[in-house]
Amino acid sequence: MIDAIGSAYVAVKEAIFDHALLPTLYALGLMAFEEAAEEWLDFALLGALTVFVSVAVCLPLERWRPVEEHGPDRGPIRTDVTYTLLSRLGLAPLFAFVLLRPVEAAWAAGLARLGLIPPTLETLIPPLRDAPLLAFLAYVVVIDFAEYWRHRLQHRFGWWWALHSLHHAQRQMTFWTDDRNHFIDDLVAGLWFALVATFIGVPPGQFPLLVLVMRVAESLSHANVRLDFGRIGRYLIVSPQYHRVHHALDHAEGRYARVHGCNFAVLLPLWDVLFGTARFVRDYPATGDRSGSERLARGSWWGTQVEGAKRFARALIGRG
Question: Which of 5, 173, 235, 303 has its CA 20 to 30 A from that of 140?
Fold first, then answer.
């Protein structure tokens, strides 16, 4: 099933490229950009798919049982929509994955000269070769573990928090908030994601589905909906309620201060439980970041990017 989904995605991409994009390039005399156009189509198509699925899943839930009714001033939410469209139609993780393919090939060639096989999950756990669904789930678990630590480090280092605080500045959190990130932070996150995916041997055909699952899960976790997964489910999958606690205003002081934080997991609360960062409560707290400026919370895409860059620069020189 996993391979069939990946094959279907590739077939659709190739059909669009062969019957729409390639003839357009030919008609405009831009055949020199054929390879670049094919790569752009790859991540643009996947980005559009993730936006479609996220809207289809999250929007009805937000209308069903919203945590808070957002007033007529929806400027910050419109800014988040802009972030999502720019991020997912550019899709930094896939772009980084494409860039890292030559690195993967060189690494594999170097190991081959030494008579070694690259240590993918299938070579480390041979039964996964005949069980693509289990292999895919294993990839998800490893990627999620890596994402937990990336997220935790974003709160630990001053320069990284200066960038990541843009994400936490949103006071009207919705499923669009997932992509509210500084451009530099997105690049770092994309490279982190792609490096892990490359060196555990995620097949190119499965990478789009892996990105889709992770991105839709993150969108749902930010949704403005009163939804948790019950007494047992809350320990299995990150819910909107669980992640909303991560964004709570009360993290400014005490045990859950930003430098430590809680509920970092993207998909599996297991990592928070194992490493002592889980916080299970029943409420739906107000969100935002008291350390951020008004421009960081309510500015346009460009305004928040500039403000985030200023915070980043101050952190680097030790003044933030």
Answer: 173
φ and ψ at residue 287, rounded to 5 degrees:
-115, 165
Instruction: Report the distance separating Cα 261 and Cα 292, nearest Å.
Output: 16
DSSP 8-state secondary structure symbol assigned to residue 193 = H
Contact call for residues 150 and 192 (beta carbons, < 8 A): yes
Please state, in angstroms and rounded to a whole number, the distance separating the CA atoms of residues 216 and 53.
Answer: 7
CA–CA separation, 43 vs 56, rounded Å?
A: 20
Who contacts 83 (Cβ-Cβ below 8 Å, separation ≥6)?
176, 179, 180, 181, 301
For 270, what's the count of Cα atoms within 13 Å in the CB-facing half-sphere?
10
The answer to whether the CB of 297 falls within 8 A of the CB of 248 is no
Q: How far is CA 272 from the centre of its chain?
A: 18
Tell me, what DSSP letter sits at residue 125?
S
Is 215 in contact with 178 (CB distance < 8 Å)? yes
pLDDT per residue as tens digits for the range 244-254: 999 987 665 55
Determine the straight-line distance between the first and last CA of the chain, rounded to whole angstroms. 50
Summarised one tens digit per residue, pLDDT across range 239-290 is 999 999 999 876 655 555 655 589 999 999 999 999 999 999 888 999 998 8
Helices 132-156 and 207-221 meet at what angle, rounded to 10?
50
Backbone angles phi, psi at 248, to 5 degrees: -65, 145
- In three-state secondary structure terms, 225 is coil
Q: Are 89 and 47 in contact (CB under 8 A)?
A: yes
Domain boundaries, the chain: 2-316
